Amino acid sequence: MQVRSRIDQYYKPYHQELTRLLNNAIAQHGKVYLLDLHSFMGLITDDVCLGDANGTTCSEQLINAVAERFSQSGYGVVKNKVFSGGHITRHYGHQPNVEALQIELRYPTYMPAHLLSAQTVSAQTSPTQTDPAPSSRTTISNKDKQQSRQHKPTEPPAPIPIPDYSIVHQSPIFIEAQSKLKTLFSRLIADLS
Q: How many CB atoms lie within 10 A of CB 68?
């Protein structure tokens, strides 16, 4: 029931508005570049991962132009390594006159290191989000795991804690990265125009 409510309240209106904006831009310009921005930590250590569903959602010219701009700005860039494009990139990137590219930025490219430590993140979570100390955790047997899969949990799992972004936005590294990215995207838009 909660899932259906969230789909109706957030997901559908978001995609309706995105579709409207894309259609308006196509009507005005004939073609649209959709940049789907995300950030990550873990899985890979590269600064930026560009995803075009392995060459299916945007032209080689677009992904290469974006990769070149990030590289010129000092970022380590990879293409389709772990992050190859999610739903937005794949769905809208297959629409006529839309080129979609997912851009994943690694947290340390714009967040201070002290805010990325597990201790700092844990300290910023709400009191209801607790993780037992390692010594108080119990070992669960394979039999217990199989039995627990057969029963639906009564409470949803606690969300993974994330840093307090009000602190992040005030940090010099964030302000510098924001300025650097604004310049990068301004130049990229000029390149593609």
A: 13
